[in-house]
Write a structure and sequence with these properties.
Layout lengths: L7 H9 L15 H11 L7 H9 L8 E6 L3 H12 L4 E4 L15 E2 L3 H9 L3 H20 L4 E10 L2 H18 L8 E3 L1 H7 L6 E2 L2 E2 L2 E10 L1 H14 L3 E3 L2 E8 L6 E8 L5 E11 L5 H8 L7 E11 L9 E4 L8 E6 L2 E5 L3 E2 L10 H12 L13 E10 L14 E7 L2 E6 L5 H16 L24 H8 L3 E3 L5 E3 L4 H11 L3 H9 L19 H5 L1
Parallel strand pairs: 1-2, 1-12, 2-9, 4-14, 12-20
Antiparallel strand pairs: 3-8, 4-8, 5-8, 6-7, 10-11, 11-12, 13-16, 13-17, 13-18, 14-15, 15-16, 19-20, 21-22
GO biological process, one term: glycerol-3-phosphate metabolic process
GO molecular function: glycerol-3-phosphate dehydrogenase (quinone) activity
Organism: Thalictrum thalictroides
Amino acid sequence: MRRIVLPVSAAILAIKLGLDEVNVMAKEGSGGVGLVKEKILSTNGIVPSRVEHISKLADFCSLNKPLDVLVIGGGATGSGVALDAATRGLNVGLVEKDDFSSGTSSRSTKLLHGGVRYLEKAFFNLDYGQLKLVFHALEERNRVIQNAPHMCHPLPTMTPCFTWFDVVYYWAGLKAYDLVAGSAILQLSYYYPAKRVLRDFPTLAKECDGRKLRGAVVYYDGQMNDSRLNVEIACTAALAGASVLNHAEVTSLLKDKISGRVIGAHIRDNLTDKEFDIYAKVVVNATGPFSDTLRKMANKDSANIISPASGAHVILPDYYTPKDMGLIIPKTKDGRVVFILPWNGKTVVGTTDSTSAITDLPKPREDEIEFILNAISDYLNIKVGRSDILSTWSGIRPLATDPSAKSTSSISRDHIVNVECPGFITITGGKWTTYRSMAEDVLNTAIKHGDLSPLSTCVTADLPLMGAYGWEPLLFVQLARSYVPKKKTKDGKIMPEAMDTTTAKHLSCAYGSMAKHVAIIAQVRTFKPYLVSNEIGFKHYDFHTAYS
C-alpha cells in the first residue's frame, strides 16, 4: 500500500479525526470517505464515551469559540446532518433530548421506497412535484442500501389482483415504477399467476368481495432496520469527529442581544440535571414533529408549519407472511394503502394516515387498530383477531404543510428547508428514505447562511456506515463458527455454549462487521477472554481495557 500526499483540506480533516496525515495510506475513495474508513477500522468501531462527548462540547461553551453547526434532534435527519457536517471537516455538535432514534425514526413501516402511490398521483393529477419526489426517493433508496447492506435489503412485495383489469392496471403501473427507477432499479417487477401466488403466499385469500384471485404483480422496494440504522448513522458521525450527546434537552435558544441572531442553545443534561450553554455559528432544527416548538423559541410569532400525521402499526405472528415476501393492499375501502410485511421473525402491518396530536409517546388509537385489522381481513384466509396482536406502535410524521389542510394523505412527503431567523434553520417533512439528501440540503443552506468554510463537498452519497466495512452476507457463518460463548455450570465447570444460527444472523444484520465485537462481549461475560479463531482477524482481548 503506497503512501500519498493529501490535499491541505484532507490533511486538516485527518488531524481533526485524530490521524497523522503522514501515516494515512491510500484507501478506497477519497477525501472524507477514506479518512472515515481509516478512523472506523483503527478504532474497531468503538465510539468515544458519553463523558468524552460532553468534554468535547465543553470546548464550545464560549461565544469566542463556537461550533460551526449545532444540530438539535437525534433522529435520522439530525444524525445525517451531523455525519455530513463532520465528513466535510466542520465542527459539529448533535444533541437529542431522549435517545437516538427514540421518536418517529424508530416507528416507521421499515421500508425504503420511492412511493408507489405517489407515482399514481403524479400520473393522474399530472403533478410533476410528486413525480420528482419519486425519482429522487428511488435514487436515495439505492444509496441507503449500498451504504448499509447489512441492515438494508431488497424486499419483493405482492400486489394481489382480483380482476383482470387489476392485473393490467397494476402491471402497467409497476412497470412505470421500474422505468422511473432507471439505473436505480432493484429488480424488475413481474406477474405471478394465481396458483403460484397461493403457493408462495398461502395466507392470501382466494376470493375478495366475491371476486376470484387472478394473480399478483410483484415489485421490489427496500426494507431496513430503522432504529439500528439511525443509531449507526449517529455512531458513524461520532467516529467522523462529531460531538453527539443523547439525553441532552434544549431548554432555550441563545440570541445576540443586539442583532437577535441565534448563536447557540441552553442545554440540560437529563441524566445529571446539569445545565450548560453551547455556542454555534448556525443552529439546525431537526426535531421532526416538534419543529414548531423550537421554531417558536427562535421567533414566538412563527406560524405552525407541521401538520402531524399518525402512522399506526401492529405486529402479528410470523405465519401471516412468508419470510421473504411482503403484500401491499393498494386501496382500502377508504382509499388508503396498507402493507403486510415480514419483519424480524414476525409480521408488521401498517400504516394509517390520519391527523394526530403531537406527543412524546404516541400510541395507536383504537379506531386505527380496528382500521388495520379490517383492512387486511378481506385479503387473508386467516381470521385476524385482537388476540393475534403481539405489539403496536405509532409514529408521528412531521408533514410540512398548511395546517388548515383537511386530509394529510393528499400532502406531498417532500421536505422543506426554512431559514427562520438569522442563525437558525429548520429542516422538516420528507421521509426516511431521503434522510441523507435532506441532510445535504440543509447543510448546504447552513454553509451559505453561516459563511462556513467546509473542507470538502458532500461525500455521504458514497459513504458506507461503520458496520458495512468488511461485511459480507456469510459473516453470520463466521460468527457462529469462530465465537463460542462459555458459561459456568452449577458445579463450577466452564462449558462451551454454541452460538445458534438465528443469533449469528441477528448480530450480523444488526451490527454488520461490528458484530464480532458484540460476540466478544458475550464470549467474556463471566470470565476472562481466551484465544479465539483468527478466521476474522481477532486474537486475545482484554475485555475491561477494550470495552470499558
